[in-house]
């Protein structure tokens, strides 16, 4: 994967911020202490998080659930990072939950009676929900690039990301009813707010049928479909580059307020926005950007301070 | 209609749960005490509710409004039923409200002054709203199959269902402004949450123009369009079969939480979901389904207890 | 522009209400005291508001922000008006905010310290938000017709309208991140509730890329695309005519309840609707319309009282 | 009890509406088909519901839970009734849930696994919640008069009433933690909205300690304390008479909007109120009352139509 | 009244900010163009608004409703003003709505049918609601001082204020049910959020009984009771002086966030607060105040910039 | 302090659960790694957290804010603990924020422009808010016992606890406006939901005046006042013992649902409660408790499993 990313980066180097010179090391192996994720920095201000258990079809084992939290907590605080790309190593994005690894844990909650087992089960589910909510809480936009299968927990994951891309061969499956449960780490909450047709959401969640890339595009789950993984990664990095080139004050404020708006009325959202921008408009980025706009320069030619 | 359903069932018998043998009687005539609905059981765990006043274009008269409530209240408690299909008898789905039958009732509310007439009018409207809300409150998924016209009250009805299918010749019309009122039994509340384009919702509701099946598909009102009624009923039963074959704990929990999510923020939805699943994961269905999945068996080969 | 509108009106005169005869004067020049808007009455019960600073690409200067409030406040109270059409004069819809005119005002809020500057900045943002919220508060439906560019503040404006139309050459750009700020006068709050794909909303808002008319149609931002401006204005007036021909009690109640539904749960929306209609069903419009419907007459042949 | 009520009525007959003459029959025995409630009509427009299993300390058995729903559903539709008084027969108000009668039912929900037993348990709890919610849904104000013990389910009941009175010897106990459960039919939801001190609410609910009448008065749980039951019933009927004497349009609209306000923001409440009163102000009651006020007559001298 | 205020000011001059010298003119007559209000400036940074139609018992006529809006809109923008005191001229606070003046207006809404009359009635009610909401929208704290009667609209008014004081002879009456309507300009929405006992709120609103000052104090409607009007005005001005002496950034931010909290969950309130204070903590007032606190100086000795 | 606690424990040992024998070690010195808190276990299932910087009047320094989070996170997971008591070491409860220690941190946020400083300030405030929110998130009830002064941050802290007690000499002060800021770590959000009089809340927050124990009791801030600290600690432990003696399933479910109810409508709260109890009623605690109740035994004689 690292080679592919590098080649994309070379081909698209024109995208990157000219005013910045130091590039962080680009790792291609799982970064210690992560055993399920590989984190690299393919370009200035871009962090790439790769689901990286290809031998297990990137299935989500116990380690994965806590590593994601650690990984995105670090990213949230990394002032060098302005945008994140998430993708999967190997032949597909993810096969979802690793049933073998998780079964004992989830199927046998501790407790002396039903109430106590339920209490512990709730704690477990809440913890797993946090794994994907952490993506939303991270103020940097997250672009997710899906190739091949995206099953079960994979759909929970991508609906917590901000922009979804996929390859022509990608397919998506809300798998949970097939294994006897209602999806409980985000799909039922976020998917209906991500795509426009409730009839389709219901059909997907109630029948566990596969949805292929064409339908994913037409229903709005993904905003773009690419011919193959190389093209998609190139597109994802280009898109990430566009975002990274803009004022982080503007970009991260945009993400935070878009999420706020999703869960509030329009008038509540406007009030919050005004309270947000009363200070966020007092930024040099606005002056620099406005000046660049008047001079018809690209935002990419404007150097911004870290955030 | 009964003949058609039976032929569909015969053609598709491969769909049904092999482990179950007793099939409930299949009625094709309006079930007493219903004068406007025909209720049958075309397959194991599937209930078919047919709007059945074909001579009156399935127009909604006074009896209809209370029979729907009775019918779906029974279904909600029928542990044999796991999924419902709704369709219309005759040449079209429904012409909407039966103006002749309803006019006296609605146009002349009782009361000694405007306040008292308003009070009674509110009671009437609230009662009619309940007729379609009962579909949402029923925890079993409801698939609606529309052919020909679906007008006025018909749109209120289908937006309260979970999955919408239609034939190529189907058309939809939010008719209310044409008769001088704002739609008040569900369309204005549910349609904007069912399809993705608010511009289109507004246009439909403000102009009462007809929308045909192609646009209904592209905007997401329906998730599939079929060539004709026979194909649609076949598809509807196949879809119903897919749902009926899965764990009722998983399926009904999915419906309840999808509806909860529609009306709450993501974090509220997640909290409710975790509280829901703390007990609902303690089901034999999960064990059976997970085992079947590992053995690469279909969910249809797994027998589940009633719910 | 006036000539075009007149020609459209002449071509489509069959659309207008036959029972009404008095046509208000059709102005084509900016109505005093408006320097940025031209208000005319191209047909019975239809008000046309034209962004009218073509030499400045209809950019939004300081005068614009308060004139919009005055204009729509007048329209809200004008019982002759039943529907509004908004469009732009000249070569494009609007270039968005007039940076030159606004910069001093926004970039230099008064105040002795950061808190006081923030306080004043919040007052300014809140005032600008009101400029577009006034469109929503106006109970008459607003149809907006976009040709050419619709940039920045233009997107804020059109998302506050009820129905969006555009020409084949139209394009839309959420421009704010390019000038270093998070959009704060409505786009981030309304766009996600206007179109169905959140992935697309995020991409547009985070990258400031242009979206062309085809994509605007397929994602649901606009409900119709026309070949050119003349065709669009004809279509807009025809659509406005359809709305104007119907009961204003029904139409305005529909707008108010659709907006209420957007920001509330379905059950809250139903309760409000029942409380609304307990009096609004006590209208002669219902009797007249129902009678016309039974007689198979068009709503356009029914004269309604003013509202 | 009937004798006491009658004596109160005789002493206070000056309270009752002079314009009305027909008094409905005053029953003092449990009205068929009620085995746990006694319903009577001690004065014009006043309905008295008495918990009436004195030999069992008015404990709530299975019959009680459904009889309350039937009883208040009838009252809601009884246009003769303008206000309700609830009290308990015998030595105390109620000992709460009848553990003996309920245990089998609640402790042994049906179901093949935990999920199915939970599903059925939820159905049971929801049904019991409805027993007290029905009091809120009844638009007529409900005055509850408590003497002696009010334990467990009794607190759930009284917090759903509108006005609470008690005798000097009354005491209240949120008993549920003592029997190993969190109170689930209303106390935890309504008590914190009924009294002002959250510290006290928490203490009562977490320790199950008794609260006596003095503290109940000072914390606002009850609005008045009477020396003994006779004085209290006299006071309750006098209070009920005050309410019954006023315009039912005003009174019932007041109850509905007070409840709406409890659960909404002030601006939401104001919007609903304006929408409510746009028709409810169009009442003859307003004209009659305003005229009486100008003539310095009492509301009791004004005859109002039924509602 | 002016004489009284001046004497209070003289007696309490020690209260006022020593660093400020210019005192605005103290008017004692109704300020043009107000016919129902008298506005004066009894001390630095304090504005006194007096209901001033003593011959009519300060009853609220048509002029009053719009003058209040004008008055408080001016105050909101007056950077010299940091706190407002509201009281009534003459023998009592206010007799409430001026029935004679308002009757024609409210009892006879225009409109050709019930729907249209309702539409216009809603516009009127909404406008009157705004008269008191404007007090909440004004970011400066409003202290209201009540003597004698406070009836009907008076209760709507005072519940929209921030701090309530009264004299020993004061009494309060939610009068609306007595004139045949549900209170619709704020009492039913705000009173339950102002005092702690819902039983009492319901009793007051449903029976229109008078509440005297002792009960008003014990239930929390007022926070202090004074022997007579002179003592109360002295206390009100002292209290206003305490508020005026503190940082306007701190004080007005406190009011805004207290109101926000009233209508939101705790976690929503905390989020808003953090977003508010991210800029509001960047004030010189914090530095000045912290320094004064460390030097054990009073806030009154700290000069703050205008806001 | 440890000696006092021990003496209280000895005097009240009759309170503790007889079925349990192992008492955890009782520490009286600050537990490593806490420098500001002392954690001990004065009785079975009771954890005592003492603010312990008496030489600095228990002022809240930087260490305090993170130690509280660690401390309560541990408690939340400690299945031995069923209830928490919080108090202050030395002469008073707490002087609030340690201005000297915090000033540099808060007054000088990092960042290259106002927007970036605001961004960092928001992060700081959010972190400090979490310090007290962690008390609410802990499912075990928290009893707080206040003696002497409780100033500024102290009020934020106690409003996040479940039950408040104080000594006769206690006083409370919402100090923030005195140092130039709006209270931002909980007081403005929680205090209005803790006590019943909004007039009083506003007065306290806007003037920073002290409130003494009598008023704290009458307004409901505390539920009990004790003569001195020894009596209060005895009372606090007795109260804690009452809670610890009851089913932890019942007690912790009660806390969670009381908090849920505070921030939701009654019907939302009831729905959540039913979903909660569908599993939580399936506990042996209910059987044991019901049996004990029928046998007229105290809950304290019932041994419950850990939770």
Automatic annotation (TrEMBL), chains A, B, C, D, E, F:
GO biological process, one term: fatty acid metabolic process
Localisation per UniProt entry: Peroxisome
GO molecular function ontology, one term from the record: delta(3,5)-delta(2,4)-dienoyl-CoA isomerase activity
Catalyzed reaction equations: (3E,5Z,8Z,11Z,14Z)-eicosapentaenoyl-CoA = (2E,4E,8Z,11Z,14Z)-eicosapentaenoyl-CoA; (3E,5Z)-octadienoyl-CoA = (2E,4E)-octadienoyl-CoA
Chief subcellular location: other
A GO cellular-component term linked to this record: mitochondrion
Key words, A-Z: Acetylation, Fatty acid metabolism, Isomerase, Lipid metabolism, Peroxisome
InterPro entries linked to this entry: ClpP/crotonase-like_dom_sf (IPR029045), Ech1-like (IPR045002), Enoyl-CoA_hydra/iso (IPR001753), Enoyl-CoA_hydra_C (IPR014748)
SUPFAM superfamilies (UniProt xref): ClpP/crotonase
UniProt pathway: Lipid metabolism; fatty acid beta-oxidation
CDD domains assigned: crotonase-like
Top-rank lineage group of the source organism: Eukaryota
Its job: Isomerization of 3-trans,5-cis-dienoyl-CoA to 2-trans,4-trans-dienoyl-CoA.
Record family assignment: Belongs to the enoyl-CoA hydratase/isomerase family.
NCBIfam families, per the entry: PRK06142.1
Protein's recorded name: Delta(3,5)-Delta(2,4)-dienoyl-CoA isomerase, mitochondrial
Upper taxonomic lineage: Eukaryota, Metazoa, Chordata, Craniata, Vertebrata
């Amino acid at each position: 994967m690292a080679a592919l990313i590098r080649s994309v980066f070379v081909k698209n180097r024109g995208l990157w911020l000219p005013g910045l010179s130091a590039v962080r090391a680009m790792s291609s192996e799982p970064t210690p202490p992560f055993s399920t994720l590989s984190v690299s920095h393919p370009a200035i201000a871009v962090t790439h998080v790769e689901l990286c258990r290809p031998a297990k079809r990137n299935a989500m084992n116990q380690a994965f659930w806590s590593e994601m939290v650690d990984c995105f907590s670090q990213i949230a605080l990394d002032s060098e990072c302005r945008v994140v790309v998430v993708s999967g190593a190997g032949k597909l994005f993810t096969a979802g939950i690793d049933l073998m690894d998780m079964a004992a844990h989830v199927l046998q909650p501790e407790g002396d009676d039903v109430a106590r087992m339920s209490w512990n089960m709730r704690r477990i589910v809440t913890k797993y929900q946090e794994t994907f909510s952490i993506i939303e809480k991270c103020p940097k936009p997250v672009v997710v690039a899906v190739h091949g299968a995206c099953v079960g927990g994979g759909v929970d994951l991508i609906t917590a990301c901000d922009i979804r891309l996929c390859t022509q061969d990608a397919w998506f499956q809300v798998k949970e009813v097939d294994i006897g449960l209602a999806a409980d780490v985000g799909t039922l909450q976020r998917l209906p707010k991500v795509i426009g047709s409730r009839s389709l959401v219901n059909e997907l969640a109630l029948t566990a049928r596969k949805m292929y890339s064409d339908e994913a595009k037409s229903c709005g789950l993904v905003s773009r479909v690419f011919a193959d993984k190389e093209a998609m990664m190139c597109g994802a990095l280009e898109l990430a580059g566009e975002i990274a080139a803009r004022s982080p004050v503007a970009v991260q404020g945009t993400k935070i307020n878009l999420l706020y708006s999703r869960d509030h009325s329009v008038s509540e959202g406007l009030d919050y926005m005004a309270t947000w921008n009363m200070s966020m408009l007092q930024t040099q980025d606005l002056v620099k950007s406005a000046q660049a706009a008047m001079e018809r320069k690209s935002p990419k030619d404007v150097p911004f301070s870290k955030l």
